[in-house]
Specification:
single chain; alpha+beta; 6-stranded mixed sheet; about 140 residues
């Protein structure tokens, strides 16, 4: 199993909206960055992803599961981009803020800090464990 981080602005698509989709999940569409697309193409069914509220909140709020691997994004008229389907698994007991991540020295190399604008990013197994512990799960 691999680990990822996906970003969404809560005013566009919030954790609560993702949770409301239930077991059938929702397509993670609209990614228009080549590097993020390459990450999505590596995602496998069963992989886990941190759900990060960007711009508004700047915090990891939950854990999602990849339930369908990369396929053509139906919102992309160019045909160049892909999407995956994800479903919400569990909220973090305590959201992990960007400030808290920056303060944790063992997370200094986390992609979230190095590639802050990238909407889909890999997370190492060690980073996953640390953030889960910080979030109370």
């Amino acid at each position: 199993m691999a680990f990822w981080l996906v970003k969404s602005e809560p005013s566009t698509w919030s954790w609560e909206q993702q949770v409301a989709k239930g077991a059938k999940g929702e397509a993670w569409t609209g990614v228009r960055n080549h590097s993020a697309k390459l990450h999505m193409m590596k995602m496998k069914k069963g992989d886990r992803a941190f759900y990060y509220h960007s711009n508004e909140g700047k915090q990891i709020v939950g854990i999602a599961e990849i339930i369908r691997e990369a396929y053509p994004d139906p919102t992309d008229d160019s045909g160049k981009f892909v999407c995956v389907d994800i479903k919400a698994l569990t909220p973090l007991k305590t959201p992990v803020t960007l400030v808290a991540i920056k303060a944790e020295k063992s997370l200094a190399e986390m992609a979230l800090l190095k590639q802050s604008r990238l909407s889909v990013q890999p997370v190492t197994a060690d980073e996953w464990k640390i953030v889960c512990k910080m979030g109370g799960v």
